[in-house]
Automatic annotation (TrEMBL):
It holds the Pfam family BPD_transp_1. It comes from the Bacteria. Residues 18-207 form the ABC transmembrane type-1 domain. It is found in: Cell membrane. GO terms for molecular function: transmembrane transporter activity. This is Polar amino acid ABC transporter, inner membrane subunit. GO terms for cellular component: ATP-binding cassette (ABC) transporter complex. Keywords: Amino-acid transport, Cell membrane, Membrane, Transmembrane, Transmembrane helix, Transport. It is a multi-pass membrane protein. Belongs to the binding-protein-dependent transport system permease family. HisMQ subfamily. PANTHER family: GLUTAMINE TRANSPORT SYSTEM PERMEASE PROTEIN GLNP, MEMBRANE COMPONENT OF AMINO ACID ABC TRANSPORTER.
Length: 221
């Protein structure tokens, strides 16, 4: 009974941390989608001025640890600009850039999965490459990338726990702060784990799967 009371009393505070986690994840994936789409198109471009920078960006953010990227921006950037940077927006910047690199590969895979004959057919109808990409290829690619995008959202939600190193109290950090006060690590970490699991199930089952079913139903109709 005492353990249940500890978990119950910690829940409202953990919800505040969860709010921070959701905000960081949503912003990171939103900006990451924008960055990732342009980087994917850049990597597939025949123009080396677009392709090489895109490749370097993707390899850097996929190849280096997220923790190092956080340190590089939060502790390194102030040395360059001469004044401290905001914790929250530093975290959003790094998470967005990191997510963008992975989303770029997701978009690239989705675009390349579309039969090239469709591009050729669009061009034969008088469309430019940009028009064919916009009206024919991308709409189909977006449908195919929904499952991996859902996985990226879940992975990013878990990765937000790393921003605690720069002082942001997201879900995991909030759990640490509660434990520092009541010394009930087992109960608090159990609740934190359950919250992460619930969020994962919510995203995968009720968002990604439902969206897939709606898109498939739209295709059949």
């Amino acid at each position: 009974m005492e353990s249940l009371q500890v978990m119950k009393s910690a829940l409202p505070v953990l919800m505040v941390g969860l709010k921070m986690t959701i905000e960081l994840t949503t912003l990171a994936v939103f900006f990451g989608c924008i960055i990732g789409l342009f980087m994917a198109l850049g990597k597939m471009s025949k123009n080396i001025l677009l392709r090489y920078p895109s490749v370097v960006y993707i390899e850097f953010f996929r190849g280096s640890p997220l923790l190092v990227q956080l340190f590089l921006v939060y502790f390194g950037l102030p040395q360059m600009v001469g004044h401290p940077v905001d914790r929250f927006w530093s975290a959003v910047l790094v998470l967005s850039l990191n997510s963008g690199a992975y989303i770029a590969e997701i978009f690239r895979g989705g675009i390349q999965s579309i039969d090239r004959g469709q591009t050729e057919a669009a061009r034969s109808l008088g469309m430019t490459h940009v028009q064919a990409m916009r009206h024919v290829i991308l709409p189909q690619a977006f449908k195919r990338v929904i499952p991996p995008m859902g996985n990226e959202f879940i992975a990013m939600m878990k990765d937000t726990s790393l921003v605690s190193v720069i002082g942001l109290a997201e879900l995991a950090r909030t759990g640490q702060l509660i434990i520092a006060n009541n010394y009930r690590a087992m109960e608090i970490w159990f609740v934190v784990a359950i919250i992460y699991i619930c969020m994962t199930v919510l995203i995968s089952e009720f968002f990604v799967n439902r969206m897939e079913r709606r898109l498939k139903a739209g295709d059949r109709s």
